[in-house]
C-alpha cells in the first residue's frame, strides 16, 4: 500500500505540464491541529504537531499529490495518564509513528485575493490503514501566502482503533479534528 502511494507521488508529475503546477508547503510552525473528544462528563481537547507537509496539483485537471504528515507521538490532551493510554493502547504511536494524508485530487482554485472553498480528496493513513476522505478547506490569500482551515470527523472505532470507554466512562466513537495552517507557495 505504501509502495503504491510512493509510486503515485513519484510518477504524478510526469502526466502534468510542469508550467501549470501549483506547489504549496505547509508551515509546521504556523500549523495548529486540535482534536476534540466528547464524553458525558466533560470534553477532552488536545493537539498534535505537523511534521511536514506539501501538496502539488494541476489547477486544470485537479490531479494532486504530496503528503501531509502528523507526528502521532506528539498528541497531548493535558493529562499525562490519558496521553500515555492514548499512545500505548489507542494510537499505538510507537508502532504507527505517523498519521498522513496523501492528496489525489483538488476541486477549486486558489484565490487571487479574498477567500474560497477548496475540496481536497485523498487517503488518510491512520494506524496502518488507509481511509478515503475529502477535506473541505476554507482558503484565504494572505499576502504571498495562504491560510487554510478545515474541520472533519474521524470515526476511529469504526476504523479499527480501540474504544477507550470503560464501564464508568463512555466516550464518543469519533474524534473531531480542526486544522489551521499557513501555506507557502513554491515558485
Tell me what you see in this structure.
The protein has 187 residues and is mainly beta. It has a single domain, classed as Lipid/polyisoprenoid-binding, YceI-like (Lipocalin). Strands 1, 2, 3, 4, 5, 6, 7, 8 and 9 form a 9-stranded antiparallel beta sheet that branches. It is built from 2 helices and 9 strands. β6 and β7 form a beta hairpin. 11% of the residues lie in helices and 52% in strands. The two termini are 31 Å apart. The protein is elongated. The N terminus is likely disordered. 24% of the residues are buried.
A few lines on this structure:
With 187 residues, this protein is mostly beta strands. Helices cover 11% and strands 52% of the residues.
In terms of topology, how is this protein built?
Blueprint: H1 2-11, E1 22-26, E2 32-38, E3 43-57, E4 64-76, H2 80-90, E5 98-107, E6 115-126, E7 129-142, E8 145-154, E9 175-185
**Beta-strand segment tally:** 9
Q: Secondary-structure element sequence?
A: HEEEEHEEEEE
DSSP helical segment count: 2
CATH superfamily: Lipid/polyisoprenoid-binding, YceI-like
Strand content: over 45%
Helix share bin: 10-25%
Keywords:
single chain, 187 residues, mainly beta, 2 helices, 11% helix, elongated
Amino acid at each position: 500500500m505504501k509502495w503504491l502511494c510512493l509510486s503515485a507521488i513519484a510518477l504524478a508529475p510526469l502526466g502534468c505540464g510542469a508550467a501549470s503546477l501549483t506547489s504549496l508547503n505547509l508551515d509546521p510552525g504556523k500549523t495548529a491541529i486540535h482534536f476534540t473528544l466528547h464524553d458525558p462528563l466533560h470534553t477532552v481537547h488536545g493537539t498534535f504537531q505537523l511534521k511536514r507537509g506539501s501538496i502539488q496539483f494541476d489547477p486544470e485537471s485537479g490531479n494532486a499529490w504530496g503528503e501531509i504528515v502528523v507526528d502521532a507521538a506528539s498528541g497531548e490532551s493535558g493529562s499525562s495518564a490519558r496521553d500515555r493510554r492514548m499512545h500505548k493502547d489507542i494510537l499505538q504511536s510507537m508502532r504507527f509513528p505517523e498519521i498522513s494524508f496523501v492528496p489525489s485530487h483538488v476541486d477549486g482554485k486558489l484565490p487571487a485575493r479574498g477567500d474560497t472553498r477548496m475540496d481536497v480528496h485523498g487517503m488518510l493513513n491512520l494506524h496502518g490503514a488507509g481511509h478515503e476522505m475529502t477535506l473541505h478547506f476554507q482558503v484565504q490569500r494572505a499576502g504571498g501566502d495562504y491560510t487554510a482551515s478545515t474541520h472533519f470527523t474521524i470515526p476511529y472505532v469504526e476504523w479499527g482503533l480501540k474504544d477507550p470507554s470503560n464501564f464508568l466512562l463512555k466516550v464518543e466513537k469519533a474524534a473531531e479534528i480542526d486544522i489551521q495552517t499557513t501555506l507557502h507557495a513554491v515558485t
